[in-house]
Amino acid sequence: MVDLDGIKNIVFDLGGVILNIDYHLTSKAFEELGVRSFDDIYSQRNQTNLFDLLETGKIGSEKFVQELTTYVPKASENEIIDAWNAMLMDLPANRIELLMKLKDNYRIFLLSNTNEIHENAFRKTILSSYGKDVFEEIFEKVYLSHRIGLRKPNGDCFQFVLDSNELKPSETLFIDDSRQHIEGAKNLKMRTYLLDKGQEISTLFPGRFQ
Asked: Among 67, 115, 152, 176, which has the minimal tally of Cβ within 10 Å of its Cβ?
């Protein structure tokens, strides 16, 4: 359970917190396409500049796919996109239900390092699962790195969210499953919680929200 004393705002990460993801599925998919060790160029902890550019919107999906073709020259564009999206899994209904309850008691936001290709994919998952964009109902504001041109764990990313919504760091809880992102938020004096692998966000809140 997380300490909610004095908390008025909650900022959630997406992948690994709300949306189930598995980086190894993308690594495996690219290795099946011929990449010897995809983890050397992309993982949860580290990534090459190509992925940074994609996640901050400095290059589009077409350029990204073109660059990845150098690693898998025989793969088609669709095969590369499918391999890149392989990490994206399901969006459990119990988490959506929890968020729906939390929004009645807190101002809640989404802050995710993501990209155009993944956004298109997970929005399709949302629509197919719920028939509508439930994120628009749940979150006061959704911040995606490729849209705002800023990414975690950089301080300017968190500061942008705080300033845009007049949030006090001491009243704002940030929940993420990446330690480096948590440290970035801590540097701005935000309250934080590092979600353990496999831990459900429902376990962080009092029983009345479960």
From this structure: 67
CATH of domain 23-85: 1.10.150.240
Q: How far apart are CA 192 and CA 204, in angstroms?
A: 12
Q: Output the tens digit of pLDDT for each of the chain's 210 residues.
A: 788 999 999 999 999 999 999 999 999 999 999 888 787 766 545 567 888 999 999 999 999 999 889 888 899 999 999 999 999 999 999 999 999 999 999 999 999 999 999 999 999 999 999 999 999 999 999 999 999 999 999 999 999 999 999 999 999 999 999 999 999 999 999 999 999 988 999 889 866 554
d(CA 54, CA 48): 10
Q: Under CATH, domain 9-19+90-209 is a member of which superfamily?
A: HAD superfamily/HAD-like (3.40.50.1000)
Question: Are 11 and 161 contacting, i.e. CB atoms less than 8 angstroms apart?
Answer: yes
The domain segmentation of the chain, as residue ranges, is 9-19+90-209, 23-85
Q: Long-range CB contacts (< 8 A, 24+ apart) of 131-139? A: 134/96, 135/110, 137/100, 138/96, 138/99, 138/100, 138/103, 138/108, 139/12, 139/99, 139/103, 139/108, 139/109, 139/110
Q: Which of 99, 105, 164 is nearest to 134 (CA)?
A: 99
What tokens does 93 get? 């209904």
